Amino acid sequence: MSMSTDVVCFISPEDEDYKKHSAVLQACLNAGIRKLPEETANYFGDDFPDPYLFEKKLTITTPIHEWERNSSQGYEILVSEIPKGVYKIRFYNSW
Questions:
Q1: What are the angstrom distances between the C-alpha of 8 and each of 38, 68, 79, 82, 88?
Q2: Are 8 and 55 in contact (CB under 8 A)?
Q3: Which of 51, 21, 23 is closest to 38 using CA atoms?
Q4: What pLDDT score does 2 carry?
Q5: Number of domains present in the structure of the chain
Q6: Cα separation, 56 vs 79, whole angstroms
Q7: Measured in whole angstroms, how far is the alpha carbon of residue 77 from the centre of its chain?
Q8: What does the DSSP 8-state code read for residue 45?
Q9: Which tens digit of pLDDT belongs to each residue from 15-69?
Q10: pTM to 2 decimal places
């Protein structure tokens, strides 16, 4: 049996940028608009309105760096590389 360690970051649904772009996404969905405005498309990383984007944007990745010394190994996250709006970082092991 092997184990892997993963790292995931979460943006708060109360983040001002998230709230602003979510409102635009919801308006496009409600109006049947087939393409998001450029700024909102860049924020969500997708040109097309889809409800899955709400949840997808709340879970993002951050650059992780492998770390090893003596008989220890793990990951490092540079604070300066944490994406804007992240309020929680989860480290988890999977078997």
A1: 26, 20, 14, 11, 9
A2: no
A3: 21
A4: 85
A5: 1
A6: 22
A7: 15
A8: T
A9: 999 999 999 999 999 999 999 999 999 999 999 999 999 999 999 888 899 999 9
A10: 0.74
